[in-house]
């Protein structure tokens, strides 16, 4: 078997150079169990990123692996041209859980494809290519979804089939409204939305928004902002798409869907999902009101969306999550973890903010002058790996650690991870050339 270094060389020779890899010495992960994974050299890691928030319940969860194996032994593939019992079973569960009345569900293979489909539905329904999106947003890597991504680090082209209008609201603690109270912040963002709409042609299709911005560094607005937006949108007939690719399925602890923190004005018109529902299998999808979902006047199919194997996995995974109250576990264990990290950060000026909900936590790192420090984030990422902990990285400037373990994380594992993160953050503090509170040089 080749070494990780030789595999990396082969990767570089055949893969695009824009395909990012973590770490100075990239990892090859070979297997996992529970909240842990192992690399090709036999090293064991506590997984606090879950393959980008995708391993939602646990690695090698017996209920999911059995469902996959049993279905694969019967039939692997049929397509949507035939009735698919696992697909209907899962669609019924998701439609009921979505909160959208008279809901219809269309399955895709990824969050990117789900958002692409939602944009097709919204623009077709409204006969407009105008889309409202939040600044600092990320919605996928397809041509259309890049066109509504408000984060320049993940937007490689300015070309787009859509006219995108970016509004304030995704980042609470930065920007021109950061100094305001929550109520004032919401009022200012609503005023910005109204002003933006006064300058449009008048037939905007939809607002798409992540309740918590994932790639953007786990930032979120005050509760109720999107509800206030919804009242303005309704007056114009504009649809609301909630991008729940990272926030769905109870990860935030307080709610099953991120939109429910903004539910005062009712549910969204469309909801997109992916990642965690498959626990590693390729599942995405759109939930929409029947009149919106059925607005297309041409035929369509999905060759791989709704695959019997992925649907069986999703149904088993969702059942496990609900029966074991993993949303409640995310709230309890995530609350302990975030408070532990805030206590650590109190003595480290390099940590600008620890934010998040449930098991979706961001740690923002800065230089002594308060400017973003991508280097500090990289140092922390590498140090955590050395300690046996895997975390993610994101934010507009790449200076935010993204922490999102499987929702079955135990208290003991949260404490272990917090200890590793404390050491990593102290290393990041040293990388910024600063001293911790009390004047001691950080090791």
Count the beta strands: 15
| Helical percentage | 25-40%
User: What is the 3D form?
Assistant: globular
Taking pLDDT < 50 over at least 5 consecutive residues as the criterion, the unreliable ranges are 437-443
Question: What is the makeup of the main sheet?
Answer: 7 strands, mixed
Span from first to last CA? Answer: 38 Å
Total number of helical segments? 13
Arrangement of strands in the largest sheet: 4-10-9-8-7-5-6
| Oligomeric state as shown | single chain
- Strand-residue proportion: 15-25%
**What is the CA-based Rg, rounded?**
22 Å
Would you list the SSEs in sequence order as H and E? HEEEHHHEHEHEHEHEEEHHHEEHEEEH
What is the mean pLDDT? Answer: 94
- Strand-pairing-aware structural class: alpha/beta
Task: Provide key terms for this protein.
7-stranded mixed β-sheet, disordered C terminus, alpha/beta, single chain, 15 strands
3D architecture notes:
This protein is of the alpha/beta class and 443 residues long. It has 13 helices and 15 strands. The strands form three sheets. Strands 4-10-9-8-7-5-6 form a seven-stranded mixed beta sheet, with helices on both faces. Helix 8 (225-236) links the parallel strand 7 and strand 8 (239-243). The model is unreliable at 437-443 (pLDDT under 50).
Describe the secondary-structure layout.
Elements: H1 4-14, E1 29-33, E2 36-39, E3 44-47, H2 50-53, H3 62-74, H4 85-98, E4 103-108, H5 111-126, E5 130-134, H6 143-146, E6 163-167, H7 182-198, E7 206-209, H8 225-236, E8 239-243, E9 270-273, E10 284-289, H9 290-293, H10 308-323, H11 326-345, E11 351-357, E12 360-365, H12 374-387, E13 389-390, E14 392-394, E15 400-403, H13 411-431
Parallel strand pairs: 3-13, 5-6, 5-7, 7-8, 8-9
Antiparallel strand pairs: 1-2, 2-3, 4-10, 9-10, 11-12, 12-15, 14-15
């Amino acid at each position: 078997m080749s070494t990780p270094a030789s595999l990396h060389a082969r990767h570089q020779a055949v893969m695009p150079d824009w395909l990012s890899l973590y770490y100075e010495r990239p990892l090859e992960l070979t297997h996992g169990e529970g909240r842990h994974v192992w690399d090709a050299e036999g090293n064991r890691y506590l997984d606090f990123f879950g393959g980008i928030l995708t391993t939602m319940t646990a690695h090698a969860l017996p209920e999911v692996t059995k469902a996959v194996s049993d279905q694969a032994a019967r039939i692997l593939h049929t397509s949507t041209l035939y009735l698919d019992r696992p697909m209907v079973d899962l669609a019924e569960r998701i439609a009921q859980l979505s909160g959208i009345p008279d809901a219809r569900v269309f399955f895709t293979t990824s969050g990117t494809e789900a958002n692409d489909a939602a944009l097709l539905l919204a623009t077709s329904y409204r006969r407009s290519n105008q889309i409202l999106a939040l600044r600092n947003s990320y919605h996928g890597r397809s041509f259309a979804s890049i066109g509504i991504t408000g984060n320049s680090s993940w937007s490689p082209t300015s070309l787009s089939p859509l006219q995108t209008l970016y509004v304030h609201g995704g980042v609470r603690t930065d920007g021109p409204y950061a100094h305001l109270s929550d109520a004032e912040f919401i009022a200012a963002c609503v005023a910005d939305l109204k002003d933006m709409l006064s300058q449009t042609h008048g037939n905007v299709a939809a607002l798409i928004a992540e309740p918590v911005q994932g790639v953007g560094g786990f930032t979120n607005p005050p509760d109720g902002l999107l509800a206030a937006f919804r009242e303005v949108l309704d007056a114009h007939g504009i649809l609301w798409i909630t991008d729940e690719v990272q926030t769905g399925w109870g990860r935030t602890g307080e709610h099953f869907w991120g939109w429910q923190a903004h539910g005062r004005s009712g549910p969204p018109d469309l909801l997109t999902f992916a990642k965690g529902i498959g626990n590693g299998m390729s599942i995405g999808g759109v939930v929409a009101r029947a009149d919106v979902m059925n607005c297309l006047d041409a035929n369509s199919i999905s060759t791989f969306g709704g695959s019997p194997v992925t649907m069986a996995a999703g149904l088993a995974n969702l059942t496990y999550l609900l029966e074991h109250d993993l949303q409640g576990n995310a709230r309890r264990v995530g609350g302990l973890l975030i408070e532990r990290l805030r206590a650590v950060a109190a003595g480290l000026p390099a940590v600008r903010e620890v934010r998040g909900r449930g098991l979706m936590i961001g740690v923002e790192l800065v230089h002594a002058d308060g400017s973003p420090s991508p280097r500090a984030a990289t140092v922390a990422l590498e140090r955590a790996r050395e300690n046996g902990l895997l975390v993610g990285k994101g934010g507009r400037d790449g200076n935010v650690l993204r922490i999102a373990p499987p929702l079955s994380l135990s208290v003991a594992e949260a404490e272990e991870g917090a200890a590793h993160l404390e050491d990593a953050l102290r290393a990041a503090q040293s990388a910024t050339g600063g001293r911790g509170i009390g004047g001691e040089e950080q090791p």
